[in-house]
Each structure stands twice: as C-alpha cells, then as structure tokens.
Write a structure and sequence with these properties.
The protein is mostly helical and 410 residues long. The protein has helices at residues 3-29, 32-53, 59-75, 84-98, 109-116, 123-133, 139-145, 150-164, 179-199, 211-225, 230-243, 269-283, 290-302, 304-307, 312-325, 329-343, 345-352, 357-360, 364-376, 380-393, 397-408. It is built from 21 helices and no strands. Helix 1 crosses helix 3 (59-75), helix 11 (230-243) runs antiparallel to helix 12 (269-283) and helix 13 (290-302) packs antiparallel against helix 15 (312-325). The longest helix is centred in the N-terminal third of the chain and has 27 residues, at 3-29.
C-alpha cells in the first residue's frame, strides 16, 4: 500500500470520526484535554505505522486502542484519579469488542455536547468548546467566527477543559430537569458548525469538509432525544431548508449563485418537505424562538419553487420578529436586505446605516449588502468603496469573483 493512500485514509478517518473518537474517550476517561492529546498521538502513530503495515480493517478501533494505550501510559507518570482502574479494565475489554467485524463503539457526542454546556463552564466558551471537542473545528477557525484572537480563544478553551476535570462536573447526561438550561448552548454549537460548513461554498476547505452534514446528523440526534421541543425542530428545519439549496449555490463552472438567481429546479424538494414538516411540528409547541423564525424565513424563500416569486414583505416581517428576540448582526443585516427588496433600497440602507460601523468593520455580509444597495441607488463611488471592503474580507474564491464582477459594473 502506498504512503499516499494511507495518508488519505488517515485524513478521511479524522474528518469522519474525530468527534466520535474524542467524545467517547473523554466521556469514559473524564478528561477532555487528555483524550484529545491521546487521540493526537494515535493519529501520529497511524501516520508512522499504516504506510508500512497497511490500513487496518477497523481504523477507528485501531485509533481507539492506540489512544487508550497512551492514556494508560500517562497514568504511570501521574496521580491516578478515582475510578481509573475500573475505567481501564472496561476500556480494555471493549477494545476487543470494537475490533470485531460487525461492531462499533457507542456514539457519545450528544452526551459530550451536554457536558460541555454545564453551568460551571463559562457561557461565553461553551459553544466554542463544543465546536472544537465534539465537532472538530480548529481553534483558529473558532476564533475567527467569534471575532477574537486565536491565542485568546486557545486560552479560553484550555481553561474550560481544566474546569471539566473538576469533581463538580459529572461526565454523563444531565437529568431531564437540567436539559432546558443547557439546550440553547448545544443548539448554538450545532448551528455554528452547520454555518461553518455552509460558508465553504466551493467545498475546498478540508477542515470543513462534511461539517454541514455532521451538524445535520447531530440535529437529528437531538430531535430523537427531545422530540417535540420547538427550537430543536426549528433548527432542524433551518438546516434542512438551507441544505436543500446546496447544489444550486454554484453554477456548472463553479461560480457562486445568490439565492435570488438560483435555479429552483435544482433544490431538493424532499429536504424542503422534511423541513416544512419540522416547522409545522415546532409550531404546535406554541413557543416561538430564534431558530423557528430563521427557518420560517427560509421557508418563504422555498415557496418560490411552487409560486415562482419571493414574498419579500413576508420575509421582512419575519426578520422584524427575529431582530426583536435575537438582535444579532446577521439578523439586522438580513432585515435590511429584506426591507430593501420589499420597500426600496433607500429604506433598507437607512436600516443598515443604523448599525454602528465598529460592530461590522469585519463583517463581510454587511459590506456586500451596502455595496449592492449603493449600486441600486446609483451611488457608484460609495458602491465601489463598499465592494472593495467586502472583497477584501471575503475568504471564498467563488464569492469574491462574483463580487468583483458586480463591482466592475459600477
């Protein structure tokens, strides 16, 4: 077997299984940082071994066994925590079971998400902690999403992992009475993970490959875990509506296509119908929330597949409700865009100009919308300035090419 093939299999296993592997190790070892270190060593061992011995039949089991050995070795040089002997025995026994042809280890990611949302963990770092430990995002990407320096985010994550070792934190699913207070952070992490995968329009970032699909899978797990919970169903509807349009976001040449210009015949009707089912089920709970409103906005967009038109006034009204309960920069910019379509570019721009510039200096969608509205109002010099700012902040080559084309028309 070639070294290249072995390396490709290691990369694929890391993409497909990192979250499951580290969550399982952390839950059973009760130490997230140690689990991550052990798994990193296991991957290094695979890079040395697999090109020589070949890829094992059960790559995940091989990595778990290697990580377990690393953890066991670690106990020989450190103070052993309570119960570690029992843990070692159980993990050693289970290692034989995982190596079988028809078996696989339990998926502990949902449990780990709720553990990371423990009240003792700083609320500001709960979502980043889940994104890194359960969903596999690197600290630099998380720092970018939360607009902080990578070093600062790294320090916050390290402190949170140390806190998880506290005796106050139980490594198990909380009781049902504790679910509601932890749910928002869990849903936020899944939403952020999906958004990170969704932003990779061209599909060229290996760090985010498969992330959107993974987030949808985690969403489905929570729907099974908390059936009937309105915001869980709302998030499921939101991600499905967005995912239904994935293949229409790029043309045959790989160019970016905005939603207003997408060929709706390329949308997945099956996903749209499933999203609508989730949204109707959420409405039965009579507790409106952020994700339900965001899903409702996407639902209105989806109706173009049947009506051939977009009801922008309805979208604008939904954004008003969203800004009322969750006034994020994204919601405020989205409202301005919808109002501009429904009531005119000048009115939309007036809403956009209410946003403090300091809050959006690095927020690319703000500058892209600003450029678009200036262009519609024939204020071309201001449009070119905003396009330049937007292009400079854009990380995706296909979207950057789209914006450059728009700027050339000013």
């Amino acid at each position: 077997m070639s070294a290249m093939h072995a390396h490709q299999m290691i990369e694929q296993t890391a993409r497909d299984s990192y979250g499951r592997l580290v969550a399982f190790l952390a839950v059973h070892w009760r130490d997230l940082a140690a689990a991550e270190d052990a798994l990193a060593d296991a991957f290094l061992a695979a890079l040395e071994s697999w090109p020589v011995t070949g890829v094992p039949d059960k790559p995940e089991a091989w990595l778990l066994t290697a990580a377990r050995r690393r953890l066991i070795d670690g106990t020989r040089h450190a103070r052993v925590h309570a119960g570690v002997k029992e843990t070692l025995i159980a993990m050693a026994q289970n290692a034989q079971q995982w190596a079988g042809p028809d078996s696989s280890f339990p998926d502990e990611r949902l449990k780990m998400l709720f553990i990371c949302a423990h009240p003792e963990i700083d609320p500001a770092v709960r979502t980043p902690l889940m994104l890194q430990s359960v969903l596999g995002l690197d600290a630099a990407r998380i720092a970018s999403a939360f607009v902080v320096k990578p070093a600062t985010m790294g320090q916050r994550l390290t402190r949170a992992k140390s806190k998880l070792k506290s005796d106050d934190i139980k490594f198990d699913l909380p009781g049902k009475d504790e679910w509601p207070e932890r749910l928002d952070a869990v849903l936020e992490a899944i939403y952020a993970a999906y958004g990170s995968g969704w932003d990779d329009v061209a599909g060229v970032d290996p760090r985010r490959k498969g992330l959107a699909e993974e987030a949808i899978f985690m969403g489905r797990l929570i729907v099974q875990f908390m059936p009937g919970e309105p915001e869980v169903l709302g998030l499921m509807a939101l991600t499905l509506h967005c995912e239904a349009r994935r293949h229409a976001r790029r043309d045959e040449a790989g160019g970016y296509v905005p939603i207003t210009e997408q060929d709706h015949s390329r949308w997945s009707i099956t996903m749209i119908e499933e999203a609508e089912h989730c949204l109707r089920a959420a409405a039965q709970g009579n507790r409106i929330g952020r994700f339900q409103l965001e899903a409702a906005i996407q639902s209105v967009h989806a109706q173009r597949a049947w009506t051939g038109r977009t009801e922008w006034e309805e979208i604008a009204l939904l954004y008003e409700g969203l800004v009322g309960i969750a006034p994020t920069i994204g919601a405020i910019v989205g409202r301005a865009a919808a109002v501009a379509e429904a009531r005119g570019a000048e009115i939309g721009m007036a809403l956009l100009e209410e946003v403090p510039v300091e809050a959006v200096k690095s927020y690319q969608p703000y500058w892209a919308l600003s450029a678009h509205l200036f262009k519609r109002m024939q204020r071309f010099e201001e449009a070119r300035t905003s396009y330049s700012r937007s292009i400079g902040l854009c990380m995706d080559p296909s979207i950057r090419a789209f914006l450059e084309k728009q700027a050339d028309e000013c």
